[in-house]
Amino acid sequence: xxxxxxxxxxxxxxxxxxxxxxxxxxxxxxxxxxxxxxxxxxxxxxxxxxxxxxxxxxxxxxxxxxxxxxxxxxxxxxxxxxxxxxxxxxxxxxxxxxxxxxxxxxxxxxxxxxxxxxxxxxxxxxxxxxxxxxxxxxxxxxxxxxxxxxxxxxxxxxxxxxxxxxxxxxxxxxxxxxxxxxxxxxxxxxxxxxxxxxxxxxxxxxxxxxxxxxxxxx
Length: 218
Ligand code: U5P
Known about the structure:
Elements: E1 7-10, H1 16-26, E2 32-36, H2 37-43, H3 46-52, E3 57-63, H4 67-79, E4 84-88, H5 93-106, E5 109-113, H6 121-124, H7 129-138, E6 143-145, H8 151-161, E7 165-169, H9 178-184, E8 188-191, H10 193-196, H11 201-217
Parallel strand pairs: 1-2, 1-8, 2-3, 3-4, 4-5, 5-6, 6-7, 7-8
Helix pairs in contact: 4-5, 7-8, 8-9, 9-11
The structure holds uridine-5'-monophosphate.
């Protein structure tokens, strides 16, 4: 993933046509497009192949199964053209290593969820986030997912993972601030509804780019 805009589009729309229209419109404003269950379940796995011919794709399937099943999921989505996958750490090291090995065999990136961005993540994930961040490093992941809604947690996770990448959802619709997440150590912001749900997605993307630029200068 080439870091140009520090922005990743979360494309949680439900139709192939809408997804491709937004991809064409926004490809120059985002470094990657993240697709997950909402789009893949509606449009089919072929949408990964179609978008990946236009932009790098991160497959956000939050993979969380046994090592063998994890491998089968990774092979399917990386085989369809995804450049990166997202996996959960909580199934444990063997499950995560299965994802890391598969990502490596495809020359793809693996991002590991440490602590999610919604309020409920404070219940079970936050108390284990440090251990999950360490596991991500030990397993050979390219980076982690950490919450823009809690910049202090990004700071803490950065102190554990060194120079691995942090991709950070929660900006916009979930209330997180682009500037604060970047200042806390996020490498990329993941933004969905506030862009694709807006009347003018390109204008929203430009506004985010201006915030990224301002944060780089400060
Ligand atoms: N996402 C989160 N929080 C996490 C991990 C992933 O919001 O901790 C994903 C969501 O599933 C969605 C995107 O695809 O990031 C955020 O979209 P939005 O809230 O900006 O619409």
